[in-house]
């Protein structure tokens, strides 16, 4: 049975979702249209156009999944997942958390958009935009950063849960 959800947030980056999707759609159409001008030995034939189009649809589906970030505060931990399908999921157990704070996240400081491993910061980050987010400091010295909307209420829910935990 899943733990009770105390707070839930959903953040979507429309520039990544729709901008890249539109770009791939245009490139797909240009690729199919331009096929007629290719040398005969280099033209896509038969099902090649169908496979090319399906590949581009798959790329769009993956980009769409990674342009949405769903976060939840539960009694047993903080959950992060990319997209509705949850291609990437992470659970942060409260017993591993030393400190949580509200910060302003800048993608350039964390290696750009997406899920990032940043060795010089001893941490990982789930970043979809510049703006408010949460920074989790762990007892082992590592860090996890996530951009979320309504970070103040998420932090308040986290602090309520941490206050209810028995002392370590």
What is the CATH fold-level name of the largest domain?
PH-domain like
Shape: elongated
Topology pattern, helix = H, strand = E: EHHEEEEEEEEH
Radius of gyration, CA atoms, in whole angstroms: 21 Å
Instruction: Write down the overall mean pLDDT.
Output: 89
Number of helices: 3
The CATH architecture assignment of the largest domain turns out to be Roll
Question: For this structure, what is the CATH homologous superfamily of the largest domain?
Answer: Pleckstrin-homology domain (PH domain)/Phosphotyrosine-binding domain (PTB)
CATH class of the largest domain: Mainly Beta
Domain count: 2
Beta content comes to 25-35%
Short account of what is shown:
The chain has helices at residues 14-34, 48-65, 151-164, and strands spanning 5-12, 68-74, 77-82, 88-92, 97-105, 114-118, 123-127, 131-138, 143-147. It is α+β, with helices and mostly antiparallel strands. The strands form two sheets. A five-stranded mixed β-sheet has the order 5-8-9-7-6, covered by helices on one side. The chain has a four-stranded antiparallel β-sheet with strand order 1-2-3-4, with helices on one face.
